[in-house]
Specification:
With 391 residues, the chain is of the alpha+beta class. The protein folds into 4 domains: 159 residues, MoaB/Mog-like domain (Molybdenum Cofactor Biosythetic Enzyme, Chain A, 3-Layer(aba) Sandwich); 58 residues, Alpha-Beta Complex (Molybdopterin biosynthesis moea protein, domain 2), CATH 3.90.105; 82 residues, Beta Complex (Molybdopterin biosynthesis moeA protein, domain 3), CATH 2.170.190; 68 residues, Beta-clip (Beta Barrel). It has 6 helices and 28 strands. The strands form 8 sheets. A 6-stranded mixed sheet has the order 7-4-6-5-9-8, with no helix packed on it. Helix 4 crosses helix 5. The radius of gyration is 30 Å and the shape is elongated.
């Protein structure tokens, strides 16, 4: 048996990053950038107007200019304005040579082909986007390890980049065991329960950007389990099993993993919930065997499986806490084990919820984080700092 911190250290030492691949940026949402990306051009690539208005050379003593020509967005023709002229200009249009300021059209009066405006209503250089104001050629615009969002796609597109080198997403197989499990939508018979773990894990994977996942429900039959485990290991980067990892008469998971040659990294953690958890590896597949209680499954996934998946897809330091925040109320921990507690963070404070039993899913209607209380310490006061791990 290992401690919670030790378990995370062991996993951090054995997990690896997956290879990268070249993708269209529009197909790389939620992927992680492998290398720093530099701008191949200046953006903007020319001085341009931020407003519809009039471009002129600023002179603090002048408030009247003669309208001379017009410049539209996308125009390639060169324009020049003298010290007495102002060119009609539109948003995004190139600033004419000789001009350095754009006054919005709302601030001018027009009469006899001249504009006039109040003294002090505009500053030199106003409403001009200078070349390279967003970024200059060669500057790093996206750092390695960045998760690609629609905003990142917009940024890359603005400099003309269509493809990006990003880490491959993990392929995940899930095996949920138990004769008692039935799928939702089916009437329950005596002794049966709904299979909540399978949809919960698939949903959690999608929430962190992993869509290449497949789940199986296997009865408590060791031969059938061996076959499914063997196939899953050959076709996945990560295998997650649920249930059947304790020492009961019908707990066959440990045997099936051993028969397949999975190398144990640890078995059992000094924590609650999820004490009888197993982690191992075989060649290029990480294996996690989670206990069957639903709240324990989600808690263990958050603390151990999720960080490994995040690292595999390129995210650095995934085992670190999301935040360290004060408790909103006193809390007494029962026993010596570390506790992974359902919590909700409100206004920067941690509220530990009631219903912490490993079977109880009701608090998940409100939960947005887990609070981690380490071994041995038992009593926490209001305001004490605790580690928080968001979903």
């Amino acid at each position: 048996m290992v401690g919670l911190i030790e378990a995370k250290q062991i996993l951090a030492e054995h997990v690896w990053k997956l290879p990268s691949e070249m993708l269209l940026i529009t197909e790389a949402i939620e992927r992680v950038v492998k290398n720093d990306v530099t701008a191949p051009i200046d953006v903007p690539s020319f001085n341009n107007s931020a407003m519809d208005g009039y471009a002129f050379c600023f002179n603090a003593s002048k408030t009247e200019y003669v309208i001379f020509g017009s410049v539209q967005a996308g125009e390639r023709k060169s324009h020049y304005v003298s010290g007495n002229d102002a060119a009609r200009i539109f948003t995004g249009a190139p600033i004419p040579a000789g001009a350095d300021t754009v006054i919005p059209q709302e601030l001018v009066s027009i009469q006899d082909n001249k504009i006039t405006f109040k003294e002090g209503s505009i500053q030199s250089g106003a409403n001009v986007r200078l070349r390279g104001a967003q970024c200059k050629t060669g500057e790093i615009i996206v750092k390695a390890g960045t998760v690609i969002t629609p905003g990142v796609v917009a940024l890359l597109s603005s400099v003309g980049i269509r493809h990006i080198q990003a880490y491959r997403q993990p392929k995940v197989k899930i095996i949920v065991t138990g004769n008692e499990l039935v799928e939702t939508g089916t009437p329950l018979l005596t002794g049966e329960i709904y299979n909540s773990n399978q949809p919960a894990l698939l949903a959690y994977l999608k929430a962190i950007g992993i869509n290449d996942a497949e789940a199986f429900h296997v009865k408590d039959n060791v031969d059938e389990l061996r076959q499914v485990v063997s196939s899953a290991i050959r076709n996945s980067d990560v295998l997650i099993t649920v249930g059947g990892i304790s020492v009961g008469e019908y707990d066959f998971v440990f045997q099936a993993l051993s028969d397949e040659g999975v190398e144990p990294l640890f078995y059992k953690i000094r924590q609650k919930p999820g004490k009888p958890m197993f982690a191992g590896k075989i060649e290029k597949t990480m294996v996690f065997a989670l206990p069957g209680n639903p709240a324990a499954v989600v808690s263990c996934f958050n603390q151990y499986v999720k960080p490994c998946l995040q690292y595999m897809r390129g995210i650095e330091r995934p085992f670190s806490a999301s935040a360290t925040l004060p408790l909103a109320h006193p809390w007494e921990k029962k026993g010596e084990l570390a506790n992974i507690l359902k919590a909700v963070v409100i206004n920067g404070e941690v509220n530990i919820l009631h219903g912490q039993d490993s079977f109880n899913l009701l608090p998940f209607a409100d939960v947005n984080a887990f609070a981690l209380l380490h071994e041995n310490d038992k009593i926490w006061q209001k305001g004490d700092l605790v580690e928080v791990f968001y979903w």
